[in-house]
Write a structure and sequence with these properties.
One of its GO terms (biological process) is nucleosome organization. Residues 1-82 form the Helicase ATP-binding domain. It is a single chain. By secondary structure, this protein is an alpha/beta fold. Among the domains are: 12-120, Rossmann fold, CATH 3.40.50; 133-141 and 198-320, Rossmann fold. 46% of the residues lie in helices and 12% in strands. The protein is built from 17 helices and seven strands. It has a three-stranded parallel sheet with strand order 4-6-5, with helices on both faces. Helix 9 runs antiparallel to helix 11. The protein starts with 11 loop residues before the first helix and ends in a 9-residue tail after the last helix.
Length: 351
């Protein structure tokens, strides 16, 4: 890096690619944005940044805790490796399984975190920002969805009942198939009626979520609302594109395959004053600036400082399916974050 400079701003990808160059410097300060990228201490990026010679280190993230307390140790170990040396000791002290019911253990972890964690909420920075309103909407399976859901379960009933390593791997595949059923049956080859393949009412009535969406969107359009639709499956976005063409909705789409220049152009089009774009469809992988985020964090990006209208979140959940279990597990993780981070007193008193 020739020439005179005081600050180097770079990307994670460039750090990995040019690690030998970055290792030559003694850095006064290293600041890592989206710091949850190094929550796994064994990941390539995490291992590389830990090798850099730095005097001071600062991590910035809105989600320091996403899955378990071990991730918290990984971040603390990066900041102070000479203090947080052993992950085994940390995991033993703060066992996630017993942690949530032990108030003394919670207080002990809060005491550990306070010197190193400063938390600022949007409500503290922007007083005019209206609170986000979130509604869980439980939706029944359509007749076709129920048929495909039963097919998947009955075909692999032996795997569901098994307990071996191979069964567990195959069970993960079954869970993915059941999630596809819960989203839209047309995610399976052979489910869509045809040939000829036509885009009409069957796209809606064969899927419980689409039935509700078809009723909701016209009302939101009448209210002059703008709509973001997030999905973890890009093939679901394909189905939604067909639906938008059929209903003549003007839309933008952003997923992991969208080139960077198209990404910014579409964002600008959607945000332009008087824009005709009513819908913006995003995959959760791409909707968080190209990184894989927990859905709650991706949705939170829609609730930004400067937003004047109230953000309403409709979380579609197909009832009596695997989706309910997935939501339950996600809520346990959110409770862990609330217990450890939000209630830790890491606010103004610690300036």
């Amino acid at each position: 890096m020739p020439g005179e400079w005081d600050v180097c701003v770079t990307s994670y990808e460039m750090v990995i690619k040019e690690k030998s160059v970055f290792k030559k410097f003694n850095w006064r300060y290293m600041v890592i944005d989206e710091a949850h990228r190094i929550k796994n201490e064994k990941s390539k990026l995490s291992e590389i940044v830990r090798e850099f010679k730095t005097t001071n280190r600062l991590l910035l993230t809105g989600t320091p805790l996403q899955n378990n307390l071990h991730e918290l140790w990984s971040l603390l170990n990066f900041l102070l490796p000479e203090v947080f040396t052993s992950s085994d000791d940390f995991d033993a002290w703060f066992n996630t399984n017993t942690f949530m019911g032990d108030n003394s253990l919670v207080e002990r972890l809060h005491a550990v975190l306070r010197p190193f964690l400063l938390r600022r909420l949007k409500s503290e920075v922007e007083k005019k920002l209206k609170p986000k309103k979130e509604v869980k909407v439980y939706i029944g399976l359509s007749k076709m969805q129920r048929e495909w859901y039963t097919k998947v379960l009955m075909k692999d009933i032996d795997i569901v009942n098994g307990a071996g390593k191979i069964e567990k791997m195959r069970l993960q595949n079954i869970l993915m198939q059941l999630r596809k059923c819960s989203n839209h049956p047309y995610l399976f080859d052979g489910a869509e009626p045809g040939p000829p393949y036509t885009t009409d009412q069957h796209l809606v009535y064969n899927c419980g979520k689409m039935v509700l969406l078809d009723k909701l969107l016209p009302r939101l359009q009448e209210q002059d609302s703008r709509v973001l639709i997030f999905s973890q499956m890009t093939r679901m976005l394909d189905i939604l594109e067909d639906y938008c063409h059929w209903k003549c909705y003007k839309y933008c789409r952003l997923d992991g395959q969208t080139p960077h220049e198209d990404r910014q152009r579409q964002i600008n089009e959607f945000n332009a004053p008087g824009s005709e774009k009513f819908l913006f469809m995003l995959s959760t992988r791409a909707g968080g600036l190209g990184i894989n985020l927990a859905t709650a964090d991706v949705v939170d990006r829609a609730h930004r400082i400067g937003q004047m209208k109230q953000v309403r979140v409709f979380r579609f959940i197909t009832e009596n399916t695997v989706e309910e279990k997935i939501v339950e597990r996600a809520e346990v993780k959110l409770r862990l974050d609330k217990l450890v981070i939000q209630q830790g007193g890491c606010g103004k008193k610690n300036k």
